[in-house]
Amino acid sequence: GENVEQHPSTLSVQEGDSAVIKCTYSDSASNYFPWYKQELGKRPQLIIDIRSNVGEKKDQRIAVTLNKTAKHFSLHITETQPEDSAVYFCASYSGGGADGLTFGKGTHLIIQP
Amino acid sequence: SAVISQKPSRDICQRGTSLTIQCQVDSQVTMMFWYRQQPGQSLTLIATANQGSEATYESGFVIDKFPISRPNLTFSTLTVSNMSPEDSSIYLCSVEPKGGMITGELFFGEGSRLTVL
Q1: Mind telling me how many Å the CA of A63 is from chain B's nearest CA?
Q2: Cα B1 from chain centroid (whole Å)
Q3: Which residues of A touch B108 (CB under 8 A)?
Q4: For position B53, what pLDDT does the model report?
Q5: What is the CA radius of gyration of chain B?
């Protein structure tokens, strides 16, 4: 089955700096890569996603890049703000139903004031 | 996006008891799922709740421990049976509102935080 590795597990950055979270996947059939943000005590929420026919997608301060050849994708957050502090989960979807969605272990992003 | 209501939001339970979690969606959805999130961990799929038929369980999860009902397209329940402290987790209901896992995009409920003593 699919294996998703996410790094780092914890990331601390100064407010205003950029943060990058990286994920690798193993199943070459994976074609959809969402990122979820989970604030403390809250539900995971989809913040951005990318499909395998696209190399990069941007939404204001967040962007996701995908390298299909290398089987890795990354989340980039620029001009970080205190409200960006949360746990971020990457995931990959290889089809075939709910069991086709595999989550990474999560990255705890800490924004230092 | 779908509005998903889960209850209870949290509960403290005694070892050996069972608890049923309810999930209500504000619109009809084809796909509903139940996830478990152990403390500080990622999201693990328990099962797909199928409307009008038995749920589809993932490896490591069985119907006797986690019976699931899905009587219609807007409602599902998950029961955690014969609880032990290892069952202390957040249980999340999620839906794929666009008619199937073609997109893979999920919306989650707020979760039910269970503590088993």
Answers
A1: 17
A2: 18
A3: 43-45
A4: 86
A5: 13
